[in-house]
Amino acid sequence: MGKKGKKEKKGRGAEKTAAKMEKKVSKRSRKEEEDLEALIAHFQTLDAKKTQVVETPCSPPSPRLNASLSTHPEKDELILFGGEYFNGQKTFLYNELYVYNIRKDSWTKVEIPNPPPRRCAHQAVVVPQGGGQLWIFGGEFASPDGEQFYHYKDLWVLHLATKTWEQVRSPGGPSGRSGHRMVAWKRQLILFGGFHESTRDYIYYNDVYAFNLDTFTWSKLSPSGTGPTPRSGCQMTITPQGSIIIYGGYSKQRVRKDVDRGTQHSDMFLLKAEEGREGKWSWTRINPSGAKPTPRSGFSVAVAPNHQTLLFGGVCDEEEEESLEGDFLNDLHFYDPVRNRWFTGQLKGPKVEKRRRRRGRKAEPGGADKQEVKGPSTQEPLEVVREVVSEDGTVVTIKQVLAAQGMAGQLELDDDDSPEEAGVAPVEPSPRSNAMLTVKHGHLYLYGGMFEAGDRQVTLSDLYCLDLHKMEEWTVLVEMDPESQEWLEETDSDEDSEEAEGAEGGGEEAKEDSSEEEEDSGEEEEDSGEEGGGECWGVGGTLGGWGRGQLPRAHSSPFFFFLVTRF
């Protein structure tokens, strides 16, 4: 009895501390939000000048990360919204909407009146109702000097059939946040976690909300059992049985004044609706088997047609008090919720013409010529990078994926198809974090993201596609040479001019908001800087401007951002 009482008292104390911190953050951020709301209102005034839908064929979108990439439920299209870009001196935020036609391999910029304000690290979910709807919640905006952050708590829906934006105003929803996760469950949107940051304080969440798509009402869920600790940028996916999986994520804690310590979570939980008890949910911690991903943040997530979860890339950080360094990854992992098992997704490599053998084939052990693969291959990557300690104290070896071999899926692997015999390494994306990932017709699409080269942050705009049935190699749909990207070194004078420029609402945009011809000139750099407006320098450390998947500054953590959809 004594132990139980002590445990309950400790639990109440933790809840009290969390409530106190949330109140403190809310109070300090109120003034900051008032300042940023004026800047956001200015940009919305500019957007309000657009009174009709304009669809313009265009080149691929400019480099960005922390955007959302979703699939149209009825058409062979991908939908890209929002995001951010840092050029070494300032960060641009976007609320542009781009559509990629898969069959035509073409991009279209779609300008729709009254869109959501510029943002990054939001969540986007597509549902099939009414010819298709794209639901967006939250995300963040930042001041020109990157010292203040505004976290949205607004809910928007893009009606894909009519190409109209609608803001849905419903009380009782989640507080403003970034780096949260959201999925479509039956006829509801289920939202978990995220974080909120002010100038001096931050708070991470582990709360759960449900939005009813029929009644347009929010409700806060109170699952029983022990759930995940507060975090952002985690994996959130649906199992075939209708339960929800939460994996990984990022959070940080203050260990002493002005010193924070980040945690890359690697635990997994199951959120399940209780049968026969409407609105009742429960948490259960689960321990998957197989080749688990190494601890990381900034990974991207999508769901395959067979309900397997795909996890790509991210960054494994080595965090010190005054610095943050990490290894960027480009490995692919599969999680099978039916077997509760992780697999390493390995590529077979490009097919080559086979030469007829004169000699008999060497018999496989057991007399089999073909090996049936029940899931993704668990063959290890090739090069050891280093070792890290996970949150549970386990020492994990980080290995870099180089010309990975093998395959994934319920397929048969012929021993003549090995990439060793072909001698050709499969094409694959460069290591990165905070990329956008989605699946359409059994093909995995990867767009953008970022990596670091010394003190430089390289933001990507390339587009890759992987046939999940063949698992041979990635196809490059949009190429990008990272060396061609402009990088501006920041100076004191740059900082001063940036503050002055940002105070007017995004530099030239404030002066040329009536110049529609220039806005539609098609010059991507000018468009992304001016129309994208809203600078957000982001946070610091060794990251240059923004934070590891929204990491160092509590941002949206691993992300996040990923935004990730389930189609």
From TrEMBL:
InterPro entries (alphabetical): Kelch-typ_b-propeller, Kelch_domain_protein
Basic residues composition-biased segments: 1-10
Ranges of Basic and acidic residues composition bias in the record: 11-24, 362-373
Gene3D superfamilies found in the cross-reference section: Kelch-type beta propeller
Segments for region (Disordered): 1-33, 347-380, 411-434, 483-541
Compositionally biased intervals (Acidic residues): 483-507, 514-533
Protein name: Kelch domain-containing protein 4
Species this protein is from: Muntiacus muntjak
